Amino acid sequence: MRKTLRLAQREYLAAVKTKAFIIGLVLAPVLMSSGLLAMVLLRNQVDTKDKKVAVVDRSGVIVPALVQAAEARNAREVFNEKTGKKVRPAYLFESVQPATNNLAAQRLELSERVRNGQLHGFLEIGPGLLHPAKDSPEAGVAYYAKNAVLDDLYQWMGNPINDELRRLRLTEAGIDATKVKNLFDWARVQARGLSALDPKTGEISKAKVSHEVEAVVVPMLLVVLMFMLLMMGTAPLIQTVMEEKTQRIAEVLLGAVTPFQFMMGKILGGVAVSLTGSVVYVLGAVVTLTSLAMTQYIPYHLLPWFFVWLLAAIFMQGATFAALGSACNDAKDAQNMAFPAMLPFLLPMLILMPVLKEPQSAFSTVASFFPPCTPMLMLLRQSAAGGIPAWQPWVGLVGVVACAVLAVWVGGRVFRVGILMQGKPPKLGELLRWAARG
Question: Domain boundaries in the chain?
Fold first, then answer.
């Protein structure tokens, strides 16, 4: 055991003393948050060039309302009230006489005006919009632009168009819309958790308001952080074991330790590297959120589970990577082996949102009991609103520990043969034979 720990210490110091580790430790959270930071810093950096839109109104009733709504919006939002500086583009609508025969030719003409920069886009309103028949193509509204889906105009036009349609329909029914108070006001649904009975006071607690940060951002960050730390502690093992094998360093070390001790030293070194990174990131997050008075977003009850799942995942993947590294003879072999070895641990990243949305569904439950997926998916389900039955994490942990022990045992058998095998590229059949025979 002492020799294994000495090897683990050697691996750990060799990793953390490098400039690359320190730089990566600092830059990783910066890069992860750079997108959000850029959105905050650049939220006011918008193109203020006026957006002119042609409207082909075949219904004959929408253009005036659009023009009026655009004028009100331009007067309110285009210029900063304090500085007078233009901060938003003005929306300008131009009415175009609808073609009576060749609609395709008119669409092509307007499209060319958009391509030439004369228009930002054009809007086509069907003749049957006011009284739409079911599934009628004449009741539609279509917006044409270079990037219509992401265009702010595309989002803005819906409200004034539908407000005008409601007003016109009420007028036809003989109802003055101005006399019906709050007719067009929308009631927003507030998301809350569940009420609970306080066992100490016997009072019914008020259900907490649910926030996107707590429901989505925190669980996702926990899983992404685990995946990043898992890669940090295990991915280099293939390369380092292969290099020590090809440079004959392994042969020297095997004169003093057994192959299993050699492999365990590598894995424990990876565990120590990942734990170092996790402690730095978790403490940094806690301190930052505390200083911002956002302690409600710190999942203290999940932090012990986070470290437990991280350790289990490192042992599973670390044993696999170390064993495959021992079978490689050059960098090309290591590269070819790396992706197949990572694939089982990449699978959870592909199904995060379905599991987060329905953490207690049959699919989520079954997927979280598949050992390579258990650490990340079970942590995600635990952090989801409402939680999961208390027995599931413990059952999942038993399966992960059993799988980790199996991975270390099988990996040790492969490592014992592969570390001294030279000049022969690894094949799957041979790896399985080494695992079976040792």
Answer: 51-179, 212-437
What architecture (CATH level 2) is domain 51-179? 3-Layer(aba) Sandwich (3.40)
Q: Are strands 91-95 and 141-145 parallel, antiparallel or unpaired?
A: unpaired
- Report CA 120 to chain centroid distance, whole Å: 32
Q: Could you please report the per-residue DSSP string of 152-188? A: HHHHHTHHHHHHHHHHHHHHHTT--GGGSTTTTPPPP
Residue 92 CB neighbour total at 10 angstroms: 16
Quote the CA–CA distance of 170 and 156 in Å, as a whole number. Answer: 23
Per-residue pLDDT of the chain (438 residues; tens, 9 = 90+): 777 777 777 777 777 777 767 776 777 666 666 555 555 555 556 678 899 999 999 888 899 999 999 999 999 988 988 888 888 899 999 999 998 888 889 999 999 999 999 999 999 998 888 888 776 667 788 999 988 888 888 889 988 998 888 888 888 888 877 777 676 677 777 666 666 777 777 788 776 666 666 677 788 888 888 888 888 778 777 777 777 767 667 666 666 667 667 777 777 887 888 888 888 888 888 888 888 777 877 888 888 999 999 888 888 888 878 777 777 777 777 777 777 778 888 888 888 888 888 888 889 899 989 888 899 999 988 888 777 888 999 999 999 888 888 887 777 777 777 666 666 666 767 777 777 665
Give the CA dihedral 230, 236, 241, 244, nearest 10 degrees.
Answer: -150
Gyration radius of the chain over CA positions: 31
| Residue 44 host element (H or E) | none
Instruction: Point out which residues pair with 409 in neighbouring strands.
Output: none
